[in-house]
Automatic annotation (TrEMBL):
This is 4-hydroxy-3-methylbut-2-enyl diphosphate reductase. One of its GO terms (molecular function) is metal ion binding. The keyword Chloroplast does not apply. Its cofactor is [4Fe-4S] cluster. It holds the Pfam family LYTB. The keyword 4Fe-4S applies. Its EC number is 1.17.7.4. GO terms for biological process: dimethylallyl diphosphate biosynthetic process; isopentenyl diphosphate biosynthetic process, methylerythritol 4-phosphate pathway. Keywords: 4Fe-4S, Iron, Iron-sulfur, Metal-binding, Oxidoreductase. It comes from the Bacteria. InterPro entries: LytB/IspH. It comes from Sphaerochaeta halotolerans.
Length: 285
């Protein structure tokens, strides 16, 4: 069996930044004698989250009922009301929001008074919730969520719209939605596309497609909750190749070793140690 590794896999810059800030938060909390928390899982990898739990970092869903301490906000960003609740409760915030996401959140606030805001994203995804939770004038900005082309209705003639997309959204679906929204210009509407899918996600997905074309089957490594890992798995399947989505080496099967050329890729929150363990295990007879 020959193994081929994707040219682009594992931690993205945003995930690396979150983990570095989390390590600093642990030390800052220890020095100050305060508890340390993360708002939701830092990343979609159980081993990494277990490491921080062992160091004393507790995963919480909100500020209520917890002793004020140091809290790490994830890369996806948070609704403004959530941020305010922690500040008002006396927590020290470590803002690990991805700089690209933070810029988009600021842009939503800037456009809110002059444009209708369309959010293209997955319902319930933390980044989508953060975009829909931007506050303007003391209340949440009015937004319209679009998840797929079927969600798109007709525009209000002559109205101005600005469109924001979740940075990890499916590129193909985003292209379809953009094409439909551009037709709104025939109604005299202004359509501004304020951002794009993250280049890191695009590059990772393109590398996965190239990998699928060069292999008989592909193993995709990443957490079950990781949207970007699931997206890589679906890409391989759509390419007509056999694929498996596994979290670590314990899920390797003999069937994987039965293919002549096996590809390996991983999601943006998969540690390099996990990838190496999977590779080592696959190479064992």
């Amino acid at each position: 069996m020959k193994l081929i590794l994707s040219k682009n896999m594992g931690y993205c810059k945003g995930v690396s930044r979150v983990l570095a800030l989390a390590v600093s938060a642990l030390q800052d909390a220890k020095d100050a004698g305060k508890p340390v928390y993360s708002l939701g899982k830092l990343i979609h990898n159980d081993e990494t989250c277990a490491f921080f739990a062992d160091q004393g970092m507790q995963v919480i869903a909100g500020s209520e009922g917890y002793e004020p301490g140091v809290v790490v906000l994830r890369a996806h960003g948070v609704p403004d009301t959530v941020r305010s609740s922690f500040v008002e409760a006396g927590f020290d915030l470590v803002d690990a929001t991805c700089p690209v996401v933070k810029h988009n959140l600021s842009s939503i606030a800037a456009y809110a008074s002059s444009h209708t805001i369309l959010i293209i994203g997955h319902p319930g995804h933390p980044e989508t919730l953060a975009m829909r939770g931007v506050q303007c004038g003391g209340k949440s900005c009015e937004t319209v969520l679009i998840h797929n082309p079927e969600d798109i209705g007709l525009p209000e003639p002559g109205k101005s719209y600005v469109v924001f997309v979740q940075t990890t959204f499916d590129q193909g679906l985003w292209n379809e939605i953009q094409a439909i929204l551009r037709t709104w210009e025939r109604y005299g509407c202004e359509i501004i596309f304020a951002n794009e899918v993250c280049p890191s996600s695009i590059n990772r997905r393109q590398a996965t497609l190239e990998l699928a074309d060069a292999c008989d089957a592909v193993v995709v490594i990443g957490g079950r909750e990781s949207a970007n890992t699931r997206a890589l798995y679906r890409l391989v399947c759509k390419r007509g190749k056999k694929a498996w989505h596994i979290e670590n080496e314990t899920e390797i099967t003999d069937e994987m070793r039965s293919y002549d050329i096996l590809g390996i890729t991983a999601g943006a929150s998969t540690p390099s140690e996990v990838i190496h363990r999977v590779i080592d295990s696959l190479q064992q007879e």
